[in-house]
From TrEMBL:
Segments for region (Disordered): 120-140
Pfam families reported in the protein's UniProt record: CMAS
Keywords: Lipid metabolism, Methyltransferase, S-adenosyl-L-methionine, Transferase
Record-stated family: Belongs to the CFA/CMAS family.
Protein name: Cyclopropane-fatty-acyl-phospholipid synthase
GO biological process: lipid biosynthetic process; methylation
InterPro entries: CFA/CMAS, CMAS, MeTfrase_dom, SAM-dependent_MTases_sf
Keyword Methyltransferase: yes
């Protein structure tokens, strides 16, 4: 008799201490759970083996990427329903150990082992990367991490990002604006905050596919050096620069920001790049950018932030993000970012929180990916496409629920005279 779904519902209820708020459809065709709820599809027993060998988020991620697990219905609603029971309660590894002291929980695990069949651990999906933690954020490991994330294929990113090819939070005039308009408004906002004028020099750290460099040169007449560690991004950006007729204004380099030696610059933009730096290296990052600016020069640091923890020593990198999306990426609270910039010598002049803007941006990216799903799978493979769909949808919810945020920090290398050349009224960008 087909009863795997009913057995799974019962076992998960025992293990989690509460019934799953979604339906389950198992590999034998059986279904169980609340009628009308989104459906978690367990395609095979291998999904259970992944969860048993890697309980929590990493096991779920492996099952999702491999296609052993799927969701039918509203992806956002399903992730919201599951977050409290699975992901959020798994943030502390001690919670799992405490759970397994319960005889009912141990019995549930034994039931899952029986239902899972062959006990051998399935191999991780090929999309998973493992970075050696003892070598975090050397130039070599940073290049490898950036390549893993960005060298997926420019055609794939064109599907997700659209014509703007901007891979960071847009700045929405209204929720009904187009993604392209919102990204243009973001680039223009950065230029105005930096006070860009003809004849000035801009360094764009982590320049991506060249959108900021092109906008600053075309609309504000500045000379721009853009640096990236991604070969594919650099090739794409150089072609765009040439197509725009801006080769005399824009230089795109495959270069680590730590190796830039042609200072001084009038301004530095770092948009969605600092998340790759790492907490231990952040002061060095801030000091390097400070040293690249002339006195009076401005830095615009656009960066995702996490909520602070009572005990910061307990912070650990999200297992799914670290293994599949941003290897070695780290988030820190906005207060720590501001403090590090000030320690490096900067005067922080403005902090603008634009959390809701990133939620809107991510939902647009997910919609674009889903609209061209078959082509995305052809370009990047089914596993990679599934990684990006889950990552972006879950991130949208995290921004909406204030679990993470994003901020633009404007800082100045204020000279000893104290003359910052900033406008007297805040947010009157010149």
């Amino acid at each position: 008799m087909a009863d795997a779904a009913q057995r799974l519902q019962g076992l998960f209820t025992q293990l989690l201490g509460a019934p799953l708020p979604v339906r389950i459809r198992a590999w034998d065709g059986s279904q169980a759970g609340p009628p009308g709820a989104p459906t978690l599809v367990v395609r095979n027993r291998r999904a259970l083996r992944r969860l048993l060998w890697k309980p929590g988020e990493l096991g779920l991620a492996r099952a999702w990427v491999a296609g052993d697990l799927d969701i039918e219905g509203d992806l956002y609603a399903t992730l919201d329903l599951l977050a409290g029971l699975i992901w959020e309660r798994d943030e502390d590894a001690r919670t799992l150990a405490q759970t397994l002291r319960d005889p009912e929980a141990r019995a549930a695990v034994r039931g899952l082992i029986t239902l899972a069949g062959v006990p051998l651990p399935p191999a991780p999906p090929r999309e998973e990367t493992r970075s050696p933690r003892r070598h975090l954020h050397t130039k070599r490991t940073d290049r490898r991490a950036i390549s893993h994330h960005y060298d997926v294929g420019n055609d794939f990113y064109e599907i997700v990002l659209g014509p703007s090819m901007v891979y960071s939070c847009a700045y929405w005039p209204t929720p009904d604006s187009t993604l392209e308009q919102a990204q243009r408004d973001k680039l223009e906002l950065v230029c105005r905050k930096l006070g860009l004028e003809p004849g000035r020099r801009l360094l764009d750290v982590g320049c991506g596919w060249g959108s900021m460099a092109i906008h600053a040169a075309r609309e504000h007449g500045v000379s721009v050096v853009g640096v990236t560690l991604s070969q594919e991004q650099a090739a794409y950006a150089r072609k765009r620069v040439a197509d725009e007729g801006l080769t005399d204004k824009v230089e795109i380099r495959v270069q680590d920001y730590r190796d830039v030696r042609d200072a001084p610059y009038d301004a530095v933009s770092s948009i969605g790049m600092a998340e790759h730096v790492g907490a231990e290296q952040y002061l060095e990052y801030a000091a390097d950018l400070y040293g690249l600016l002339k006195p009076g020069g401005r830095l615009l640091n656009h960066q995702i932030a996490r909520r602070p923890q009572r005990d910061e020593t307990t912070y650990s990198v999200d297992a799914f993000i670290d293994s599949y999306v941003f290897p070695d990426g780290e988030l820190q609270p906005i207060g720590i970012t501001v403090a590090q910039l000030e320690r490096a010598g900067f005067e922080v002049r403005d902090v603008e929180a634009i959390r809701e803007h990133y939620a809107l941006t991510l939902r647009q990216w997910v919609a674009r990916l889903e609209a061209e799903w078959e082509r995305a799978v052809q370009l990047a493979g089914p596993g990679r496409a599934r990684v990006w769909r889950l990552y972006m949808a879950a991130s949208a919810l995290a921004f909406e629920h204030n679990r993470i945020g994003v901020n633009q920090v404007l800082a100045v290398r204020t000279p000893e005279s104290g003359t910052s050349d900033m406008p007297l009224r805040a947010r009157t960008w010149n």
